[in-house]
TrEMBL record:
Keyword Ribonucleoprotein: no
PANTHER family, A to Z: CELL DIVISION CYCLE 16,23,27, CELL DIVISION CYCLE PROTEIN 27 HOMOLOG
GO cellular component terms, semicolon-separated: anaphase-promoting complex; cytoplasm
Transmembrane segments: none
Organism, as annotated: Angomonas deanei
Annotated TPR repeat ranges: 177-210, 281-314
One Pfam family from the record: TPR_16
Record keywords, A-Z: TPR repeat
This protein's name: Tetratricopeptide repeat, putative
GO BP annotations listed: anaphase-promoting complex-dependent catabolic process; cell division; metaphase/anaphase transition of mitotic cell cycle; protein ubiquitination
Family from the record: Belongs to the APC3/CDC27 family.
Length: 331
């Protein structure tokens, strides 16, 4: 099990040992010596934040680490930093990190993995896969690099190779929940739902991160889901939101399940709350669908237009929804 809250509380405790810098005054008086978190402290705090799914705080902590300790470019934990930046879509910071590591340690395994994440964010999966292969050749014990390679291969729909990469990661580290989740995603895409659920449950037993809870719930919240499966999905989303109130994807999908269960008022309340603070086009699409179910076509059209403004790339899909609504009203 990962105990992120306990780690954060321990590291942030005022009595926890910290680094000192500056000049000590005469006669042993150290009043002029400043104290700040050590590299060890910041690294483990950043990793705890990563594993609980708080990518922004994780990235901020790693940035602080490198500000205080610019020499810290050798550490494998920086691969997690690059993944946090990947999730945040921070192309500039990730590119700068990769360039900095290439200049200092061009052949180190962490450098190669960070560069791979940069390629991945730029939608260059083939280059990312090559870099991750090199990283594992340089350091065969860098389990996270195998898992990242598995996800890149899965993105390319190379399912057999992806499965091998995830299993290699688990061979090195049997507690790497990210690799179990990768196998879950692999089987889910292959419509082997029961196998997918087994792997997701294994990942959750190690670390119940928001992203993995969401993917596990998705195995129940399917297009052809039964009433029993939808209720199971709702239970998982309730747990995910309870543990992580800022898990916005879980709140959105929970509202979708409520909508499918016919609990329209509950769905509408959740969606309206999300719409106030989340500029996500799909939240407004779901809210429009909710208005359709409530027989409020004019409200539905308003929300579809809002979704179109937020994400013009979904124009074909959203206009299709509006045309379907208009056709239904004509009938």
């Amino acid at each position: 099990m990962y105990y992120m809250n306990e780690v954060k509380l321990l590291i942030k405790n005022p009595s926890f040992p910290m680094s000192t810098y500056g000049k000590k005054a005469a006669h042993g008086n150290d009043a002029t010596v400043a104290r700040r978190p050590s590299a060890w402290q910041l690294t483990h705090l950043a990793l705890a934040l990563f594993h609980e799914g708080n990518m922004q705080a994780c990235a901020d902590t790693f940035a602080q680490l490198l500000t205080y300790n610019p020499w810290f470019l050798h550490d494998p934990s920086l691969v997690y930093y690059s993944t946090a930046l990947w999730h945040l879509k921070d192309v500039t910071t990730l590119g700068a990190l990769a360039q900095r590591m290439l200049e200092e340690l061009p052949f180190a395994a962490p450098t190669l993995a960070v560069v791979a994440n940069k390629y991945s964010l730029s939608k260059e999966p083939n280059e990312a896969i090559v870099m991750l292969e090199r990283a594992t050749q340089v350091d065969p014990l860098l389990s996270y690099a195998y898992a990242l390679r598995g996800y890149e291969l899965l993105y390319m729909d190379h399912k057999t190779e992806a499965g091998e990469a995830f299993r290699q990661a688990l061979h090195v580290d049997r507690n790497l929940y990210i690799a179990y989740a990768g196998l879950g995603e692999l089987h889910f895409r292959g419509e082997e739902v029961e196998f997918a659920r087994q792997y997701f449950r294994k990942a959750i037993s190690i670390n119940s991160s928001p992203a993995i809870l969401n993917r596990y719930a998705a195995t129940f919240n399917r297009r052809d889901a039964s009433m029993e499966e939808l209720l199971q999905a709702l239970s998982i989303y309730d747990s995910a939101v309870g543990d992580h109130p800022l898990n916005l994807p879980a709140r959105h999908q929970r509202a979708d399940v409520l909508l499918r269960l016919g609990r329209l008022q509950e769905a509408q309340e959740e969606l309206l709350q999300l719409a106030q603070g989340t500029p996500d086009a799909m939240v407004f699409v779901t809210l429009a669908r909710c208005q359709e179910c409530l027989n409020r076509p004019h409200e539905a059209i308003k929300y579809y237009h809002r979704a179109l403004v937020l994400d013009p790339r979904r124009e074909v899909y959203i206009k299709g929804c509006m045309e379907r609504l208009a056709a239904g009203n004509e009938d």
